[in-house]
Amino acid sequence: MRHGFTTGSCAAAASKAAAYMLLFGKDKNSITITTPKGLDFKAEILETVRGEKSVKCAVRKDGGDDPDVTTGALIFAEVSISDTAGISIDGGVGVGRVTARGLDQPVGNAAINHVPREMIEKEVREIVDISGYEGGLDIIISVPEGEEIAKRTFNPRLGIVGGISIIGTSGVVEPMSKQAIIDTIRVELNMKKEEGYSTAFISPGNYGLDFMKSAYGYDLDRSVKCSNFIGETIDAIVELGFESVLLTGHIGKLIKVAGGIMNTHSRESDSRMELIAAFASKYGASSGEVNQILDCLTTEEALSVVKNAGILQDVMNYAVSRIIYYLDKRAMGKLKIECILYSNDFGELAKSDKALELLEGGMYGL
Questions:
Q1: Model confidence, pTM
Q2: Inter-helix orientation angle 312-330/230-239, to 10°
Q3: Sign of dihedral through CA atoms 298, 302, 308, 312?
């Protein structure tokens, strides 16, 4: 299946082209950037508009064979001469604003995630250095259709208002064929088994793997990213004959597993607040605190309520025990299962008794 490029890649390409046209005074019909994944993205530059001290242009989002609601949208970047040193990045029309804690950006910021921001600055900095320009630049990313597109996403529920998010950790959109992803997970697991591993180390996404690296110095090459397909991944781990599994992930994904949900994609399920509220109630949260949790938009916000109630550790330990309970049921008792749970705001939340033992075995042996 054909891959595509993220809104972050489109924003970076448009920004680079606009900066080039502004600082060199020449037209640009296409431009190439290198994504964090290492793939080059050659983008066609559209709808260029020149101002006295600014240039605005667009790149059309192509999600490849992924059924992405943003495919076809024009991602605009306007680059302007600034009196302030450095490169500033903000969102304009159709780019959402963050209104709830626990997301990639602070409350009040444009919903342009940190990796796209780094991509935009890197690509524009390249043009600045080549041109010899020593002043500042302001960059505004906008998506004219963004507010309408956002109605078909979970942004409003997540506390992002007014438009879409500019996202992407690799810069590349991998086609979301369910079977293709599951087959890829299975191939990666089989490779680890052939290399002699008896424990499978899995995480739903890049952030979970990054947490393992930063918190424990874990070699990411030993891990497998299981995406939202927790259940199918456990099935494959059992079938391939692993002895044990260590699942590491963010509370926003794994709290669903604590309720027996084995596909954690937001299109499939969302009982995050209900589960946290139920667990908090078990450990003495008041009815008012339970209602506060149910009204939260993000798990990070809900954790703050739980912490203020003085029961965070109890609730998270229980969540880990329920995650292991349901994974054990899925594995039919054929695996030794451990789990580490974390959040962006609170760091490590809880881990099972033998999690570090498995982790150390994976770091220093097979």
A1: 0.63
A2: 50
A3: negative
